[in-house]
Write a structure and sequence with these properties.
The protein is α+β, with helices and mostly antiparallel strands. The protein has 3 domains: about 5-110; about 145-225, Helix Hairpins; about 235-385, Histidine kinase-like ATPase, C-terminal domain (Heat Shock Protein 90, 2-Layer Sandwich), CATH 3.30.565. It has helices at about 5-55, 60-65, 70-110, 115-125, 145-190, 200-225, 240-255, 280-295, 340-345, 355-365; strands at about 235, 260-265, 275, 300-310, 315-320, 370-375, 380-385. It has a 5-stranded mixed β-sheet, with helices on one face. α5 runs antiparallel to α6 (about 200-225) and α7 runs parallel beside α8 (about 280-295). The longest helix has about 50 residues, at about 5-55. The structure holds adenosine-5'-diphosphate. Adenosine-5'-diphosphate binds next to α8 and α10.
Length: about 375
């Protein structure tokens, strides 16, 4: 039934009122009638012997008329009349109480629902353009105020999500525009040259190739962030082997800076559980982390990788002797496109998406990643639960 809350409350209240009033009226009627019966019986028993005794006695009749006493028959009739009167007045009062109750319920419900109406009107004014607007929390500390608070909290979260989405899109646009602008500029310069030497062609191709690679890398990384769904976690993972194959792939880059990589594996002897996940994604996460530990390391530095399995978790710590990270950036570095030192990171080929991909992958495996930094170097701590 499409009734407003106000009508529903009034309807329910009226039914309750009718039931209560009926019970009250009926019980009052019967108890009062009983009292009338007892009273009339008492009056009759006081009168009856006198009537029987003196029924033909004219003096007696004259006496009771003179004294104002009433005969038993008249008492019974009077009781009946009183009962009928009682029934009529009870019904009239009952109907009056029900009617009045209905009106009062309707009016008070309307008053209490005013704040809901106000809240509804304010919510209607909110659109994607004014998500930062907060709804005023007026009135007493009741459920409506709680609802308003929850709604404001939800608005805040949606606003943050919108903002970070906007920020993400503008970062993507910026990241894609820069290499495109470089290519365009080089082409313009090239076209303006009247005499074109083979060297110029060579240079142009090099610039186009370099920027094209950068564009492809960003697009690949963006796709890997957005393709979060339909991923399967059915590969039996041997973390030791995985780490070794990553370090093997990166050994040339590490040896360019003369960086030593140590792997330390500790496995709880009681633990013979298998871990299932997505090998390709975990490989990518470890690759990004170890590649960063090389990129942001000093020459002749080191990287220590600790692999530790206990009954519930796989723990991987990746420690390096690099530039370190300031505490205020511990959270930020996992955000898409965030780079502590933009120009340096760009120079060494970073897009700022690496750690955000790592975080997405670790979260997809229900794990978490954090970072700690010391005087020299940083340590990335990964904890993934057995599934
Ligand atoms: P990028 O592509 O710039 O490397 P990442 O998302 O991988 O992007 O990293 C974000 C930022 O975090 C980097 O720009 C760098 O400043 C910082 N960072 C990441 N790993 C390390 C590390 N091992 N040591 C010091 N700084 C790091």
């Amino acid at each position: 039934m499409n009734l407003s809350i106000r009508l529903k409350v009034t309807f329910i209240n009226t039914i309750v009122l009718i039931v209560c009033s009926l019970i009250l009226t009926i019980s009052t009627y019967f108890s009062t009638s009983k009292s009338i019966d007892i009273l009339s019986d008492t009056s009759k028993s006081n009168l009856t012997p006198s009537i029987d005794q003196f029924v033909s006695n004219e003096d007696y009749n004259k006496n009771i008329v003179d004294s104002g006493e009433i005969p038993a028959q008249t008492v019974t009739e009077a009781a009946k009349t009183e009962k009928a009167k009682l029934a009529t007045t009870s019904i009239i009062y009952m109907l009056a109480v029900i009617g009045l109750g209905c009106i009062i319920t309707y009016l008070t419900t309307g008053k209490s629902l005013e704040s809901v109406k106000k809240l509804n009107d304010e919510i209607k004014d909110i659109s994607e353009y004014n998500l930062s607007k907060k709804i005023k929390e007026h009135g007493p500390n009741d459920e409506i105020k709680d609802l308003t608070k929850s709604f404001n909290n939800m608005l805040g979260r949606i606003d943050d999500a919108f903002e970070s989405q906007k920020q993400f899109s503008s970062n993507v646009a910026h990241e894609l525009r820069t290499p495109l602008a470089v290519i365009q500029m080089k082409i313009d310069v090239f076209k303006k040259r009247k005499e074109k030497a083979s060297e110029d062609y060579e240079k142009l191709i090099q610039v186009v190739e370099k920027n094209n690679n950068r564009l492809s890398k960003v697009v690949d990384e963006l796709l890997s962030i957005s393709n979060k769904d339909n991923v399967e976690f059915k590969d039996k993972i041997n973390f030791n082997r995985l780490i070794k194959s990553v370090t093997n792939e990166l050994k040339e880059v590490a040896s360019d800076k003369n960086i030593n990589i140590y792997i330390d594996e500790k496995i709880d002897s009681d633990n013979s559980k298998d871990f299932y996940g997505n090998e390709q994604l975990l490989y990518r996460a470890l690759y990004n982390l170890i590649e960063n530990s090389i990129k942001y390391n000093r020459d002749n530095g080191y990287i220590k990788i600790y692999l530790n399995k206990d009954n519930n978790f796989i723990n991987i710590d990746i420690e390096d002797s690099g530039v370190g990270i300031k505490e205020e950036d511990y959270e930020n570095i996992f955000k898409p496109f965030y780079r502590v030192d933009k120009s340096r990171s760009r120079k060494i080929g970073g897009s700022g998406l690496g750690l955000s991909i790592v975080k997405t992958i670790i979260n997809q495996h229900k794990g978490n990643i954090s970072v700690e930094s010391y005087d020299s170097g940083s340590k990335f701590i990964i904890k993934i639960p057995y599934n």
